[in-house]
Structures are given as C-alpha cells and as structure tokens.
Amino acid sequence: MPQPPKISAETVIQHALTLLERSGEAALSLRALAAGLGVTPNALYWHYADREALLGALAAHGADELRRALRAAFPEGAQELADLTPLAHRYLHFARSRPHLYALLTAPQRDPAVSAGLWADVTTMLAPFVGADRAPEVGVALWAYLHGAAGLEGMGAFHQGKPQTGLEAGLRALLGGFSEPRP
C-alpha cells in the first residue's frame, strides 16, 4: 500500500514559486524542488506527474494571482474606460514584481483553461464601458499593449533615454480611442 504524501500540493507550489522567482523556469527541476523541501523527488509525484504538470500548476496559480490583483485594482465608481488605468498599472506591477511567473503565465499554454478565467474577468470588466460585443476586441488591444510595455520594461528600454511617460500617453490614447463610438 502506498504511503500518503508527506507534503501538500500547496507546499510544493509555494516552494516552486520561490525557486521560480529566484532562478527562473530553467532552474526549476523536480530534483531541486524536492531537495529544497527535504523530500525525495518521488514524493512530488503524488501531486504532479512531471515537470510539465508542475509548470502548468504554476501558470494556473499565476493566472489566479493576476486575476485577484486586477479585481482588487478595479476602481469603484468607474464611469468611463479611461478610469480603468489602475488595472493597467496593476498588470504592469505584476509583470515587474513577478517576472518569472509572468513569463511562465504568458508563455504558450498547453491548457487553454489556464488563461480562460483571466480572459473572462478582463472582458467582464471592460463590457460596461465598451459593450459586451466590443469587450473582446478592446481586451485584445489592451492586453497586447500592456504585454508589449511589460516586455519593454523587462528589457530595460525605459532606462535608455526613452521616457516612461510615453507609456502613459499611449495608454491614454488607447483607452481614449476605444471610448469613441465605433464608425
């Protein structure tokens, strides 16, 4: 009869997040994770079939964490699309403060459900301002803009004589453009 696991899935995820943020995805192995937890690598197989399953669980955790952060940033009493800039700032803060988790979350996913909940939240937040029919269009544009901005920040582009105020100007223009009625 197999013995029950000595560690919980949540303990494994929390330690894996620490390793991920410290050293990046390439350094995250089941062997290193097990050593850090003081268990044999076989103990991890109770919770995750392999490294890919662990990475999928980390991506799902990242999506949930970003969803909670965006919900918390949603401004009470928002009247127009431009009032949603705190959401954009929260997204960029997540990318900046959790760079390896963000990279894992935005990498191609084997499980589309990982980002489906996050996408549903984004379109739900946008719908009152642009309508349910336009929310996906606006969501894609905003997400693409923010992902590009996060990538530029990650490579240090704003520290090479390029003003970060351009990011704010672009965000205002993007949100303002979608505030206009569709032609």
TrEMBL record:
SUPFAM superfamilies the record matches: Homeodomain-like, Tetracyclin repressor-like, C-terminal domain
Keyword Nuclease: no
Domain HTH tetR-type: 6-66
Keywords: DNA-binding, Transcription, Transcription regulation
Residues spanning the signal sequence: none
Gene Ontology molecular function: DNA-binding transcription factor activity; transcription cis-regulatory region binding
Residue ranges the UniProt entry marks as DNA-binding: 29-48
Record PANTHER family: HTH-TYPE TRANSCRIPTIONAL REGULATOR RUTR (PTHR30055), TRANSCRIPTIONAL REGULATORY PROTEIN (PTHR30055:SF239)
Protein name: TetR family transcriptional regulator
